[in-house]
């Protein structure tokens, strides 16, 4: 067995738990959040994160307000963020805020923002 890899960079994908979504819907919303945050990320951070293996952590948020607060904190810290609103084609009403993507960024920087959130 080899050594465990050390990841310097990661993304945090935060999904609301106060709205009813199937497991598949939650996964899709987390994927949207990942892609959205990546689009806004610094070119050098993107490159480093992609080369390192694209670590992602999926976390829980209690409500929409928490997502907005986390987004504001991340943007203030210079971390890319993408708030996801659903198109309303399947399970939930159009415009419902479902998830937030943060990063890629240095793991420690994201931990200072999201370190108290539980894993999904």
Task: Report what the structure shows.
It is a single chain. The chain has 120 residues and is an alpha+beta fold. It has one domain: Bit1 (3-Layer(aba) Sandwich), CATH 3.40.1490. Helix content is 41%, strand content 24%. The chain is built from four helices and four strands; from the N terminus they run βααβαββα. The chain has a four-stranded mixed β-sheet with strand order 2-1-4-3. The longest helix is centred in the first third of the chain and has 18 residues. The radius of gyration is 14 Å and the shape is globular. The model has no long low-confidence stretch (mean pLDDT 96).
Q: How do you describe this structure in short?
A:
The protein is 41% helix and 24% strand. With 120 residues, the chain is α+β, with helices and mostly antiparallel strands. The model has no long low-confidence stretch (mean pLDDT 96).
Fold blueprint:
Blueprint: E1 9-16, H1 23-40, H2 43-52, E2 56-61, H3 64-76, E3 81-85, E4 97-106, H4 107-114
Parallel strand pairs: 1-2
Antiparallel strand pairs: 1-4, 3-4
Describe the strand arrangement of the main beta sheet, using strand numbers. Answer: 2-1-4-3
In this structure, how is the largest beta sheet organized?
A: 4 strands, mixed
Helix content: 40-55%
Characterize the quaternary organization of these chains: single chain
Question: Notable features of this structure?
Answer:
4 helices, 4 strands, 120 residues, 41% helix, 4-stranded mixed β-sheet, alpha+beta, Bit1, globular
